[in-house]
Amino acid sequence: MATPGSDGTAGAPPAGETGDTTTLIGRPADRYLDEAADHLAAVKDEILRRLRVRPGHRVLDVGCGNGTDALELARHVGDAGEVVGVDVSEEAVAGAIGRGLAAGAGVSFQVASVYALPFPDASFDACRSERMVQHLEDPVAGVREMLRVTKPGGRILVADPDHGMWAPDLADRETTRAVLAWWFDNVRNPWIGRRLPGVLRAAGARDVHVTVMPVVLRGVAAADGLTGLMDALRHAGDAGVVPAERARALREEAARRDADGGFVMYGAIALAEGRRPE
Ligand SMILES: C[S@@+](CC[C@H](N)C(=O)[O-])C[C@H]1O[C@@H](n2cnc3c(N)ncnc32)[C@H](O)[C@@H]1O
């Protein structure tokens, strides 16, 4: 089966592991993550609220990408607090450092993998990761390491999409299902959203709780921007995953609805939270 090079809401999966995140969904990673942040603003706000970050807290963002969320966290922990962002991608960390300097914020960034965080046990009051665990070969090991560096009783929050739940408003169900399954199976853990509570428990978290937030993409540009929908339809036809004429018909249908102002695509992101045992 051909591999499409999609990343769903999130970065071509093999790239996420290797650190080569210069492009995501065929566009510069930095631009992709900025666009995604616009679509996911409500999710990011909810993560922040649930982390219960306070002035003076020391907080870690794992898989921090271009640093947007770490910079926002820095505003909440204040001068007495500290935020650290880590990412396995050198390009991402270089971009995040640039943003941090431009913002003059008290936040630092470094290259590190979630599997080997360069911090002693119990270093942070809280730890977050967003759209990162979906790329991991071993999600439990990654979350266990996040718990290790969190203080006893401290909170971790892991947010990831469930790529089995994307619902574009297209009439041909059979073709749509086939294209979406093919496209999102390119993510290492496409169903991680529903697996997250089990992953946190297996990693040793206590008081595990999950909630699911909707993602509503209005218009083809938004759907394509976050998930690569139109690329998926194009490549699935070219690769023979579905008959080319049916894939083309779906693209035309999406464009027609878009012109009417009626095209939507829904999805879901799971926010799983827990504590390191006391
Ligand atoms: C889709 S991006 C999300 C970035 C950021 N959390 C955000 O919400 O904008 C996923 C990030 O996870 C990073 N990543 C993937 N595997 C990782 C690992 N093993 N350790 C740390 N970061 C990783 C990638 O380099 C990428 O920057």
TrEMBL record:
Residue ranges annotated as compositionally biased, kind Low complexity, are 7-23
Enumerate the GO terms in the molecular function aspect. methyltransferase activity
Membrane-traversing stretches: none
Q: Which GO terms describe its biological process?
A: methylation
One family name in Pfam for this protein: Methyltransf_31
Zinc as UniProt keyword = no
Write out the ranges of the annotated region (Disordered).
Answer: 1-25
Q: Which InterPro entries does the record associate with it?
A: Erg6_SMT_methyltransf (IPR050447), Methyltranfer_dom (IPR025714), SAM-dependent_MTases_sf (IPR029063)
All copies of the Methyltransferase domain together span 56-168
Which keywords does this chain's UniProt record carry? Methyltransferase, Transferase
Name recorded for this polypeptide:
Methyltransferase domain-containing protein
> Taxonomy-wise, where does this protein's organism fall, top ranks first?
Bacteria, Bacillati, Actinomycetota, Actinomycetes, Streptosporangiales
